[in-house]
Amino acid sequence: MSRFIDQYILNEEQKERIGKVEELAARFAERAPRHDREGSFPFENFADLREAGYLKSTVPQQFGGDGISLYELVLLQERLAYGDGSTALAVGWHLGQILHLRTTRKWPQDIFADLCRSVVKDGTMINTFASEAASGSPSRGGRPETTAIAADGGWRITGRKTYSTLSPILDRFVVSAYIPDEDCASDFLVERTDRVTVVETWDVLGMRATGSHDVALDDVFVGSDMRLSGKGTDDGGGWLLHIPACYMGIAMAARDFALEFARSYRPNNLDAPIASLPSVQRSIGEMEVELRTARSLLYSAADRWDREENNRPSLKPELGLAKYTVTNNAIKVVDLAMRIVGGTSLSRELPLERYYRDVRAGLHNPPMDNTVFQMLANASLNEKP
Asked: Within 10 A of 23 (CB to CB), how many other CB atoms are there?
């Protein structure tokens, strides 16, 4: 019988890609405990991802990338997170945003083409730094305190961004900034210079190896052509499914660890492993309910987004529901896995306590739970009688 994790592989091409990612995930799993304890950035993981060609997965084929679908992105990211959640979440922001730019075409074509060629040739990565201490999450609509002031031939940008995932490794990134003269915010593509400082503030409970430090910009000059219009088609934000895919991968790893423990652990008061106990079987059954429900929603949402190109904006409630269900169910799965394993699960020698901490970070990734509730309520109320 094939493994449950393989259930959503549809063809040989996907199976081949999964095999390569599994090799990376196994390697990353060995390094994960050290980076988690140190809170250090796994540069070697990203060197491996670059060498394997993983960073160009969502780059359009016309620029030398693989041009994979959202469904395939979810499939690969889930498997990568099975080995190391931090690395998967961090690289997911890069892969997801390339997919987003590919489908919305909101960047000028020449700038996007240059980025894509650099990803393929040099392993360049990208992320957008929008969060700030004062304005909170950009998904809440806060105005950035980072400012962009018009200068001869471009702009001068000053401010400080928080939650800047991948900051230790990026040589270019996007920042949102407020333009006082125009009373509006805009995005700018910034290259790292000596006026860009990574302030190592990332010392948190979970996802400790994502390198999500603060980034300070001190009067950084950006050319006029590097102001990004932000226009383009609305893709419904499907690329954000890389987030629940990551947390589903962590939950799958916790589930498999608990299953192996239940099959093999036999205390001396039993004549069979604890998997034979009705109470343990019930907990395993509860894990399966949470996992199978969440995965079916996740892959269904990704498949619909791929197929229903003209309907993508109206899929936002479904995409949000998938993220909400996966994240909350994944937390339940890891909790159940720890209950099955018992007190041993608290040991830092085992991965479960790291899974427990990492999976909770999903609650703070967009869209947040209350935003999903509001989207679903609005969709229901706006139905025509």
From this structure: 13
Domain end, chosen from 228, 261, 283, is at: 228
Residue 376 burial class via C-beta count within 10 angstroms: exposed 0-12, middle 13-18, buried 19 and up: middle
User: What pLDDT was estimated at residue 139?
Assistant: 66
Cβ neighbours around 211 below 10 Å, total: 24
Residue 231's pLDDT band (boundaries 50, 70, 90)? confident
287 contacts: CB under 8 Å, gap ≥ 6 = 255, 258, 333, 336, 337
Cα–Cα distance, 309 to 319 (Å, whole number): 14
> What tokens appear for 37 in the block?
């304890």
Tell which residue, 191, 159, 193, has the closest CA to residue 176: 159
| Listed residue (161, 168, 174) closest to 39, CA to CA | 168
Token pair 């004062």 is at which residue?
A: 134
Q: Among 228, 256, 287, which residue terminates a domain?
A: 228
User: How confident is the model at residue 287, as a pLDDT?
Assistant: 98
| Residue 208 and residue 336 in one domain | no
Show the domain range for 327.
238-381
**Quick one: pLDDT at residue 1?**
47
DSSP track, 325-337: HHHHHHHHHHHHH
Q: Is the pTM of this model over 0.85?
A: yes
For residue 158, what is the enclosing H or E element?
Answer: strand 154-164
Q: Return d(Cα 281, Cα 272) in angstroms, integer.
A: 13
Instruction: With H, G, I as helix, E, B as strand and everything else as coil, classify residue 232.
Output: coil
The confidence score (pLDDT) of residue 229 equals 78
Closest CA to 179 of 213, 151, 203: 151
Question: Domain count of the chain?
Answer: 3
Among 119-128, 145-154, 227-236, the least confident range: 227-236
